[in-house]
Amino acid sequence: MLDVLVAAFAAFDLTSLPLLSGGVLLGLLFGIIPGLTATLAVILLVPLTYGMDAITGVSLLIGVYIGGISGGLVSAILLGMPGTPSSITTAFDGFPMAKQGLAGKALGAGIVANLFGTLMGWLFLVGVAPQLARLALQFGPFEYVAVILFGLTTVVSLSGDSIPKGFVVALLGLVICTIGMDPINGLPRNTMGLSCLSNGINAVPAMIGLFVVAEVFRECEKGVTGALHHTVRVEGTSSFGWIDFVRGLPNLVRSSLIGVAIGIMPGIGGSLANFVAYDQAKKASPEPETFGQGNVGGVLASESANNAVIGGALIPMLALGIPGDVVSAALMGGLQLHGLEPGPLLFSENPQFIGSVYASFAVNALLMFVFMMALGRRILPKLLLVPKKFLLPVVLVASTVGCYNLGYSLFDMWTAVLFGVVGYLLHRFRYPVTPMIISLVLGKMLEKQLRLALIMGKGSMLPLFTQPLSLLFLVLALLSLGFSLYRAWGRSGSRPRR
Question: Residue 299: which residues within 8 A CB-CB, separation 6 or more?
Fold first, then answer.
């Protein structure tokens, strides 16, 4: 592995460093502003790389990818509005920490977790890409059903004060996922005759509505005078130090491994990774009741997992030509734009290119860390001092415009507004929002894979319980569900509300 790393950095061209820096900064900007995601940033830049050589162009896109995923923590912590779907669970504890005057500690923890998760994903990308990618190839419909069921078990521990209410909201999310085209035969269903519903409800605008737009509504209800919060301290005793890092190391390692594993499985993505990592961190904590009230472990788990997904998602994309998520699919398009076809032959025919990808990945991770430490802990917290009457309209416009840019559809903008109202009402009547998010992320995938499994099994789901990988994830799902229920019933109802 050492020989691979030496060759990788020898192949890297340092003259492209200014360009990579610009890519990381642009990604951070898109990640910080709610609604402008890493996916959008990469897709917008793919055509601009056409005039560059393949190594420089792909390195730039990777920098935008890393910056976009990392930047989401800033708005999640400072505003309670995740900049990207991958940072949703960051807001659960990061925002309460900011309101307690610990914004600096939360930001420092998130930045360190970003670097740790990114480098963990990079190590797996460099060291075991072909082996792990071959394992991912063994995943069929039955394995995916088991993995998704494992992800859905997080509904229990993230349902706030009331598990029954959490299940009701999760079920509502699954029902919403049935709107649109049937994933197998392509026929419309539950559209009520409206052509705008023929493609179903896009989960990203819905998530933006539930978390960003709903938060804007709640802040407006409180009044538009003054700033969002005046208690933010970034300097002094609120910093994230070495002792905090050592205490959080097991959490960082576990969450990063979860992120890598989920990133490797094509089509799953970072939205599930941050939920699962947060859920497992809460289960492993000796003080699970503090999660949702300002526990730094929640920030560490979420941010290390979503950044570890980056390296994991690139493994099947480079080794097999199978994109691990939407952003890596856009990166794959960038490779093809330069006449490179991802897959096993890429490693043997273009070793210099692969080495440069490895090196630029590590360099971009370090650039992200430097920029976040320089800007994220000093300049960006000043956002909270901006009067709400100026800040909230900017956030609302950026969010809705970002929704429009996803598919250039006005319907996506209205989806965000509608789900903003839904999120506001759920919060008003003390229903947790998070279970609906989980259902919207996993619902369509669950139905598609379940239908395919039934077709393959000729109406029988017996292989789900007999195939080793699917059985493994079913056991993990049962253990996770049992542990969550045991803790829920063992407490007196003082769980934090989502």
Answer: 73, 77, 90, 93, 94, 97, 106, 109, 110, 113
337, with CB counted inside 10 A (0-12, 13-18, 19+), is middle
CA distance 398 to 321: 33
Query: 350 to each of 28, 195, 344, 346, how far by Cα in Å?
Result: 30, 47, 10, 5
With a cut of 70, say whether residue 2 has pLDDT above it: no
**H helical segments located in 46-99:** 54-78, 90-99
3-state SS record for 253-309: HHHHHHHHHHHHCCCCCHHHHHHHHHHHHHHHCCCHHHCCCCCHHHHHHHHHHHHHH
CB of 414 closer than 8 Å to CB of 421: no
Tokens at 487, concatenated: 């803790």
CA 402 to chain centre: 16
pLDDT digit string, tens, across residues 101-131: 788 888 889 999 999 999 999 988 888 766 7
Report the pLDDT value the prediction gives residue 231, as an integer from 0 to 100. 44
What is the chain's alpha carbon radius of gyration, rounded to the nearest angstrom? Answer: 22
Structure confidence at residue 117 (pLDDT): 93
Q: What is the dihedral of CA 468, 469, 473, 479, to 10 degrees?
A: 30
Can you spell out the DSSP letters for 126-170? HHHHHHHHHHHHT--HHHHHHHHHHHHTHHHHTSTT-HHHHHHHH
pLDDT 10s digits, 360-376 = 898 899 999 998 888 76
- In this structure, the dihedral spanned by the alpha carbons of residues 58, 61, 63 and 66, taken in order and rounded to 10 degrees, is -120
Q: How far apart are CA 402 and CA 412, in angstroms?
A: 9
Q: Report residue 252: phi and psi, to 5°.
A: -60, -45
3-class secondary-structure state, position 267 = coil
Average pLDDT value for residue range 400-412? 79
Dihedrals phi, psi of 425, to nearest 5 degrees: -70, -40
496: pLDDT strictly greater than 80:
no
